[in-house]
Write a structure and sequence with these properties.
Blueprint lengths: L1 E6 L5 E17 L2 E14 L6 H8 L11 E15 L8 E9 L4 H5 L2 E2 L32 E11 L4 E11 L10 H6 L21 E13 L4 E11 L2 H7 L3 H6 L4 E10 L2
Parallel strand pairs: 4-6
Antiparallel strand pairs: 1-2, 2-3, 3-4, 4-5, 5-7, 7-8, 8-9, 9-10, 10-11
């Protein structure tokens, strides 16, 4: 359970409480390693607690108002991973197929006074959703609360007794459908996406789709001794216009931010 108070437009404080319940199962079956998990979040959250970007969209619903009437949380996270290590092949490669879905908020949720964006709390998101860390905000700001889908292939090669090479490829999408009508009301009534919003005539940035981009992570691990490892990595993010609009500042920045990202690092990992 997590809870906090959030100031509202009326100067009061709303109860912002969420509970997370779920199950996780991992093991081996038919020569495959697998892991399946599902979590559901419920509780309450005031208008401001749901995020300043969404507050205006919520306050246009007749059952809510700017004083911060509570919104019901109703969110989920689902993940499945299946992998196999080929021990009789050179470099003993391991290949893992990966899919995670974190729910987002859409027009139907707001009409029902629900907040459906899954909160990842204090997660180490780069371990799961790409080392560049574009999607590690607990409240879902990396996709402006439209949720996240991550389809990935993760590979590992034992190239020598002391050297391991890892190559991961991610394809990211929003969970809320942005190419259809699922987000029309949010985009029309709020400032969540600036130029990404719809006008009063129902004209939206229809060219913006659910595709948030792709990321490639390459990691080389050198085992120096039993307690020390040297880790070097390179990551590249292939940006999209949707990712730029959701993460830029102002219409111009959102359009010009549609660029790729590069990141390199060198790390020493020592256990005492």
């Amino acid at each position: 359970m997590n809870s906090e108070d959030s100031a509202t437009a009326g100067g009061t404080a709303d109860d912002n409480t969420w509970y997370t319940l779920g199950a996780r199962q991992n093991g081996k079956m038919g020569g495959l390693d697998y892991r399946v998990e599902y979590y559901h979040q419920f509780g309450n959250g005031g208008v401001d607690a749901a995020g300043a970007d969404f507050a205006e969209a919520y306050t246009t619903v007749p059952t809510l108002n700017a004083q911060g009437d509570n919104i019901e949380r109703d969110a989920y996270m689902f993940g499945i991973r299946v992998g196999k290590t080929f021990t009789n092949v050179k470099y003993s490669p391991t290949v893992t197929l990966w899919y995670d879905q974190l729910s987002g908020t859409d027009d139907e949720d707001i009409a029902d006074s629900n907040y459906s964006t899954f909160n990842t709390l204090q997660d180490t998101g780069h371990k799961y959703y790409g080392l560049i860390d574009n999607f590690t905000n607990a409240a879902g700001n990396g996709t402006q609360r439209y949720g996240l889908q991550d389809l990935a292939i993760k590979t590992k090669f034992k190239i020598s007794d002391v050297n391991t090479l890892k190559v991961d490829a991610h394809q990211f999408y929003t969970q809320t459908d942005l190419s259809g009508a699922d987000s029309f009301g949010i985009r029309q009534r709020s400032n969540v996406s600036g130029a990404f919003a719809c006008d009063n005539n129902g004209v939206c940035e229809s060219a913006l789709e659910n595709n948030l981009g792709q990321e490639i992570d390459v990691t080389l691990v050198h085992k120096y001794d039993a307690n020390t490892k040297f880790v070097a990595g390179y990551s590249h993010y292939f940006g999209t216009m949707t990712h730029a609009f959701l993460n830029g500042s102002g219409a111009t920045a959102r359009r010009t931010a549609n660029g790729d990202q590069d990141w390199m690092y060198l790390m020493v990992d020592t256990k005492f």
